[in-house]
Amino acid sequence: MKRDIDRLLAERNLDAAVVRGSTLSSPTVYYLADGHKLENVTILLRPGRPGLLIHHPMERDDAALTGMETALTTQWDVRSISKELQCDLLTAQAEQLRRILADHEVRGRVGFYGHGEIGQAHALLSQLARILTDVELVVEFENDLFSTARITKDEGEIRAMRDVAERADRVVAALVEMLCSSPVANGNRNGKGHLLAADGQPLRVRHVKQFIHDQCVRQGLEQPGGNIFSLGADAGVPHNQGNPDDVLELGKAIIFDFFPRPVGGGYFHDMTRTWSLGFAPKELERAYQDTMAVFKLVMETLEVGKRTSIYQNITCKYYESLNYPTILTTPGTQEGYVHGLAHGLGLEVHEAPSFYAYESNTAVVERGSVFTVEPGLYFPQRGYGVRIEDVVYCDEEGAFHSLTPFPKDLVLPVRK
């Protein structure tokens, strides 16, 4: 949480932190600016003091809403510096940052954060390292200050995440209603029928994705990463987004992975349901029930303070007891259980904590954390995949709550 930033600065022995970027591209800037839209800002944080937001004059109104102290970039104008020093843009930007730190008497160890092109970031940080005399430049590769702070959410963040979850739920409910009410061509309970669109043509994945988009617009949601709506063998490859031309056939596995956020940015939701229209083949039903058993086992054993990697191992060992291959004993397998169990969720779809069973992963389940639980089985050669995913919140009392109430029925009934 934001209240932990001073403690995290102290743990890292940092005298200050500098964050650069825009709210639309940098989750850290969005986080510190409470979502107010800002471009190309610099934020200076020092222990025990309000943050300093350095912004362009055009954004002074939004900057004032953040609650931070503010200053204008014109006090350290890059064009003026470039003219004064007869230098290129890189040198001028580095000199601008040097002067900002000097004018605010920042010395010692300073961490640098934000998002940007990797080449530009490397060039700027390298130049800064050459010209800073009273400052030791510090960068972090993993478990950095802000990704660590964002693991736990405050009440306002949880309200925002509940809100987007409820809106996502309404989109999925509308989708299920559309699928279940669509006419069926050439079908019977165990046949090879398929759904029809309103114009009498076969209902295809592209029609479904357009429907999802339209429902998102109604709910004020956007999908910056698209979505996954994959059928049959495509559902056997976890991140296959689906073939737009595929027809929705009865009895074929469908994986729908939906990860929207509010229009303009904010907190994500992330849910997956596996469906089969009309009926489910026995092999698909068995894999689904086995995955549901893993999902319930994990939910029942979640505990504050336990290493997150424990739950990846629990998942692998349970699947292996049922004779499914997993990445625990068959690294690199492309069939069976092939991915991690869970990931943190917030301003990014995938953020800390990690649940992978790496030796270096020391993350534990924390109060206030929000993460997914998403076991799955994948058999592309057999023509199916299965995944079940909810978002889980651990409250301050250590109780776990699903933020994804949508039903987990495998078979969606269709019109007779």
Question: How would you characterize this protein structure?
Answer:
It is built from 11 helices and 21 strands. The chain has helices at 5-11, 27-32, 60-65, 78-85, 89-103, 118-131, 145-149, 155-181, 205-219, 282-301, 309-321, and strands spanning 16-21, 41-45, 52-55, 69-72, 108-114, 135-138, 184-185, 194-195, 221-222, 228-231, 253-258, 261-262, 271-277, 343-344, 351-354, 370-373, 376-379, 384-387, 390-394, 400-402, 411-412. The strands form 7 sheets. A 6-stranded mixed beta sheet has the order 4-3-2-1-5-6. The protein is elongated and about 75 Å long. The mean pLDDT is 96.
Query: What is the straight-line distance between the termini?
Result: 52 Å
Q: What value does the average pLDDT take?
A: 96
Enumerate the strands of the largest sheet in spatial order, edge to edge or round the barrel: 4-3-2-1-5-6
Low-pLDDT residue intervals, each spanning 5 or more residues: none
Using the alpha-carbon principal axes, give the shape. Answer: elongated
The tally of strands reads 21
Structural class by secondary-structure content: alpha+beta
How many DSSP H or I helices? 11
Radius of gyration from CA coordinates: 25 Å
Major sheet description: 6 strands, mixed
